[in-house]
Amino acid sequence: MRQDIERIILEPERIAQRVMALGKEISEDYKNKAPLLICILRGAVIFYSDLCRAINIPVKMGFVSLSSYGENSESSGLIKIRQPLGWDPINEDIIIIEDIIDTGLTMNMYRQLLLEQGARSVKICTLLKKPSQKQEIALTYKGFDIENEFVVGYGLDFAERYRNLPYIGVLKKEIYAK
Ligand code: IMP
To answer: Ligand 1 centroid vs 102 CA: distance in angstroms?
Structure first.
């Protein structure tokens, strides 16, 4: 897989340090609570499992798979739930754990949906943030700001590949332009 990567932008050690710091911050912010951490499948799964173990207060674990209706979603506000949460969000303090925020549309819609379903609070935690947001997004926790490039690894994929790379790297253009 390494030959398909143009350059590594985040080495495993740097990711691990940042994840530990985020875990500490969340533990302090939510002490005396047991927040429900929702993992957005599949891209966030590696970040999620490391982050959960960097948190030293009790957490509840939930998993959901979403897809938005692309450009249409902006006007229709529709979100497609491919795999439901299986939890009643009523009165839960929720932190949505996402791999990367690009336009922010999906996260804004999902956050709104959880609030409408009765969640007490909904915060968003993303490992990566690109500058190309179309919407203002209420981000509480962020790992790293990155450039507007297509990245893979540490859970992030291209066509379901590269998720198991231990680092995050920019994918060579010739791979996704094929
Ligand atoms: P958005 O913020 O609603 O536009 O969508 C973010 C989603 O797009 C993420 O959860 C990823 O699945 C995907 N995505 C955006 N940028 C990248 C990237 O650079 N690599 C891999 N997936 C990406």
So the answer is: 5
Question: What residue ranges do the domains of the chain occupy?
Answer: 12-147
**Residues 12-147, CATH architecture:** 3-Layer(aba) Sandwich (3.40)
Which among 4, 29, 93, 102 is annotated as catalytic?
Answer: 102
Ligand 1 shell residues, CB under 6 Å: 43, 68, 98-106, 150-152, 156
Please state the atom number of ligand 1 nearest to the C-alpha of residue 106: 3
Name 131's bridge partners: none
CA distance 148 to 107: 18
Quote the Cα angle for 148-154-56, to 5°.
115
What pLDDT, in 10s, does the model give residues 139-159? 899 999 999 999 999 999 999
Q: Which ligand 1 atom sits closest to the C-alpha of 150?
A: 19
Question: Is the whole-model pTM more than 0.85?
Answer: yes
